[in-house]
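Feature request disguised as a bug report, sorry. It would help if multi-protein outputs had a clear separator. Right now it looks like this:
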Amino acid sequence: MARKKRLVEQPALPTNEPKEKVAYQDAFQSNVNRRLEESSKAFEGKGKTILYAIAAIAVLAVLIGIFMSYNRRSNAAAQTALGKAIETSQAQVTDQPLPAGSTMKSFKTEKERAEASIAEFQAVADKFGGDVGEKAKYFIAVNRLSVDRPAAVTELEGLAKGSGEVGTLSKFALAQAKTSDGKLDEAVTIYQDLAKMSDPIIAKDTINFNLAQILEKQGKKAEAADLYYNIAKTAAEAKDADGKAIPLSLTAREAKDKLTALDPEKAKTIPEPTPEAPSGLNFGQ
C-alpha cells in the first residue's frame, strides 16, 4: 500500500458508480508514503512470499494516490474503468460470506484476486491505452508478482525504462523484487538511481532506508550508517511553518535505531525533537 507528499489535491473523481462503492479520499493520498513504510516494516524478515506481496501491495497503494492526483488528464470512461479494476485489486480476501446485502467483492485467495485484477486491468489497457493504459499495465505487473513472478519481473523491467510516475514506481517495485531474490547489487543500482531523481514520487527517506538496509546486508556498514544518519538528522532538525519541531516519521525513527546499533556515538549527535505542550510551552524549557 512519509512526510513527503507533493501530490496536489484535486476534486473528487467523476464516476457513475454509487458514491458508497468508491471512497477515494485526499486523506488517503496524504498517508500513502506512511503506509508504504509501515507495511514494509511490519513484514520485514518474514520470508520471500510476504516480501513479494509487499512489492505488489505497498507500491499499488502509492499508484492509487497518483491515479487520483492525475485523473483529470483522462476521460471519464477510462477513469471509471481503472477505478473499478482498482476496487477489485483491493477487494477483501476471506473464506467467510459477506454480510447480507453487501455489494462489495471478495475472493477466497490472494491468487484468485490477483487473477481477476489482472483480467480487469488488461481490459482497461486494451480499450483505452495512453496514460491510463500505462497505469493499467503497471497494476498488471504488480498483481502478477504473486501469480507468475518471472513474467511480472520482465514486465516491470520494461515499464521501468519509461518516464513519468509509472516508470518510477516500476523501478521501485523492481528494486524490491531484486532484493527479495537476493540480487542485491542490482537492487542497489536501482535504488541509487531513484535517490538521484529530483521527484521520485516515493519519499526519498524510504528509498534511502531501503538502500541502507541492503548495504548493511552486504557488510558496507559505514555507508549504511551514513544513510541512516542523514535520514534521522534531517528529520530531527525539520521544523513546521511555525518553527516548531516535527515528530520523527516512522522511517526516521527506524533509521536512528539502525544507526544506534551500527554507530552509537554518531547516533548521539542527532538531537531529539522537543515536543510542544498543548499551551505552546516548550517541555525542554
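(second protein starts here, but nothing in the output says so)
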Amino acid sequence: MHREREREREREREREMEPANCKKYGIPLYGASWISDDNYLVFAGGGGEGRSGIRNALLLARFDFESNCLNDQPVAKLGTGSDLPYRMAVHPGGDGVICSLPKSCRCFEWDTVKSTDGNKLGLKPSDKVIDELEDVGQQLALIFNNDGSVLALGGEDGKLRVFKWPSMEIILDVSNAHASVKDLDFSPDGKFLVSVGSGGPGRVWDVTSSKPVASLSKEHDEVFGFCKFSCSERNPVLCITAMRGQGGSIVKWDTSSWKRASTKHVVRDPVCAFNASADGMLLAVGTIQGDVLIITSANMHVQNVVRKAHLGLVTALMFSQDSRALVSVSLDSSARVTMIKDAKRNGLSLWIIVLVILLAIAGYYVKTKGTHGRFYGRDQSSICFYRNQELVDQSRACISLKRTLDAFLHTLKLKGSYLDTWKQIRRMKSSGKLESYFLHIFVFL
C-alpha cells in the first residue's frame, strides 16, 4: 500500500514537470493517428505478449489547439488482451480503425460515451470479423487511400495485399513483394501504391491494373525505410527515407517518370519514423535519439528541430489533416503534439516580404523627391515654381506608385480590398507560389 502511494506521488511529480503538449500514458506507444475532427488522437501500444505487467491497449486523447495542451489522462482506453496493437490505419470516412496484431488484424469502432462533461468519443470492438485478415501474421504497414475505398497491408513475411473496402474484394496479392514490407503509401489520386521493404528496391504498383509499373533502385549502400507522397498543387513528389553510413537522407522521385530527382542528407541519426503533411508543404522525421525534425518539402530545409522530444526512439509521426500540428509517440510511453509555425512554412517570413516592399516604396519616394532637390538655391520665383512642380510630381509619383502596386497585385492575380489581398498573399505563401512572383517587385519598382 505504501509503495503504491509512493508510485502515485512519483507520477504526479512527473506530470507536473511535463510540458502541456507532452504526456506519458503508461504504455510504450507504437502507433498514433488524428481522428477526423482533429481534436481527438488515437494511440496504440503496450507491453506485448508475456508477463510484463504492461497492458496492451488503444487509447483516445484530446488535444486543445488554443492552449496547446494534451489530456493528462486518456479519455478512453480499450484493452486488447495479450495482443499488441503494433500498427493501425484510421478510416478517413470515420469507419473506425484497423489494428495489426501479432497474428491477425482487428477492427474497432468509434463510440459515443455520455459523461458529466457531455458526450465524448469512445472506442469499442467491432462486431465485424474480416476473414481475409485472420491468420495473416504480423502486418508492418497498413494504409487506406484518401477516400477510404482501398486498404493496403504489408506483412513481415513480405506479402503485399490490397483490397477494396469494405467489400474486401482482392485487388492485389503478391507473396514476395519484398523480403519484409516496411512501409506503404498511396498516391493522392489513389492510382499508384508504393512499397518499400528490407532488401531490394522500392516498387510502384498500378492499383487499377494490379501490376508493378516501376522499380525504385537504390544507390551504393542505401537502405530504404519509409515512403510518403508529398502532395502539393504541382505534380506530387514521392519521398523515401534512406539510410547510409553518414546518417539519414530523403530521396525525391519524379512521379511522371519514376526517376530519382534529388537526394538530401537531413540528419546524422537513423530515421525511425516519417510522415508528410496533407498540404504537401512539410515532412517530419523522427530519430532513434528521440528528436523530431520538421522539414520544408520544397527546398528540404530543416524548419524546426525538437531535441529530445522523447526519451526513447520515435515510433510514429502524423500531421493533423489541416497540417497545423504534428503528433509523435515513443517507446518511453510519451505522446507529444508540436504546433507548426505557419509564418515560416515556405522558409521565407511574410514579414520579411512586407519589409522589403515597404523599403522599395520608401526608396522610390526618396528617389522621386531627390530629383527636384537639385533645383533649389535659385531665385525666389524659381523656388516657388519648383516647389509647386515638386507637389505635382509627388502627386504623380503617388499615382504612379499606386499603379505599380496595382500592376504587381495584378501580376499575382489578386483582387479585392487590402484585407482580401493580404489573405490571398498568405494563401499564396502557404501554397509556394509567392516566391516565384517575388522578383516582380523589383521589375516594377
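Even a blank line would do. Unrelated, but nice: The first helix runs from residue 2 to 17.
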